[in-house]
Amino acid sequence: MMQEEQTKNDKNDPATESEENTQNIKDFGMTDIQNSRGKIHCLSIVGQVEGHMLLPAQNKSTKYEHVIPLLVSVEQDERIDGLLVVLNTIGGDVEAGLAIAEMIAGMTKPTVSLVLGGGHSIGVPLAVSAKRSFIVPSATMTIHPIRMNGTVIGVPQTYEYFNKMQERVVNFVVKNSGIKKNVFTDLMMKTGEIANDVGCIILGDEAVRLGLIDEVSGIDGALECLYGMIEERRADNKQDKK
Predict the structure, then answer these.
(1) DSSP string across 221-242
(2) Rounded to whole angstroms, what are the CA distances from 154 to 33, 63, 148, 160?
(3) Model-level pTM?
(4) How far, in Å, CA of 78 to CA of 80, rounded?
(5) Is the distance from CB of 83 to CB of 196 less than 8 angstroms?
(6) Is 144 a catalytic residue?
(7) pLDDT of amino acid 242
């Protein structure tokens, strides 16, 4: 019994919590931030989103088997008030990226995303999955059709598979942002901008003008928005209890 109480006290100890945060930053690029306005979890999606196949050791990657359980924990942990998703990703596995994006989109807690550097390929659905999305002026986003490495069987079924996968991405982006479906599809099929490929690269201001991202701002604007959403949620909860 005394050992259980000691363990509980250790978890609540600020020094222990600080050590855990430092370790989480080193291992996963994740941390909890707490002040008088609330406690938020910062999730970094960097490098390449890793799917079912392991990437080479020298690649920076975000592993979906780490992120998905973490998002469940953030949603259920009463101590955490909101989620900040920071993106600097080249894209990666489509199904893994969509799985993470769907998890974020389905959360009831306040969520804000911030694109720094790049939110390319499957990073686009990840960027729009939060309730409010931000992008810095210098960041870029690459929009292109679904691609696959390795052997592709040249049969009609392969085309249908690619088409369905692409529709999943398009529909998710349109549903979770302000961009029109025909506009996003045109950007995806644009020619002349990317060498040896179709698609396009858009900057921060253009992403907002097209309705893909909500606002151009940095970390200050993203955090201020998140804290504002947390305060609104608390006010709504108090009103429901009356």
Answers:
(1) HHHHHHHHHHHHHHHHHHHHH-
(2) 50, 31, 13, 11
(3) 0.85
(4) 6
(5) no
(6) yes
(7) 65
121 is catalytic: yes
Residue with more model confidence, 11 or 102:
102
- Give the tokens for residue 19: 């050590």
- pLDDT tens, residue by residue, 147-166: 776 666 777 777 787 788 89
Name the CA dihedral angle for 70, 113, 225, 37, rounded to a multiple of 10 degrees.
20
Task: Choose, from 129, 144, 177, 217, the residue flagged as catalytic.
Answer: 144
Cα angle 150-155-158, degrees, rounded to a multiple of 5? 60
Q: Token pair for residue 27?
A: 């291992």
Question: Can you list the alpha helix ranges (DSSP code H) found in the chain?
Answer: 2-12, 14-28, 64-76, 94-105, 123-128, 156-175, 181-188, 204-209, 219-241
Q: What are 105-154's pLDDT values in tens digits?
A: 999 999 999 999 999 999 999 999 999 999 999 999 999 988 776 666 77
Query: One of 121, 133, 177, 217 is an active-site residue; which one?
Result: 121
**Is residue 29 exposed (0-12), middle (13-18) or buried (19+ Cβ within 10 Å)?**
middle
Beta carbons within 10 angstroms of residue 24's beta carbon: 16
What sign does the dihedral 63-67-68-69 (CA atoms) show?
A: positive
Name the one residue in this structure whose structure tokens are 């059709």.
145
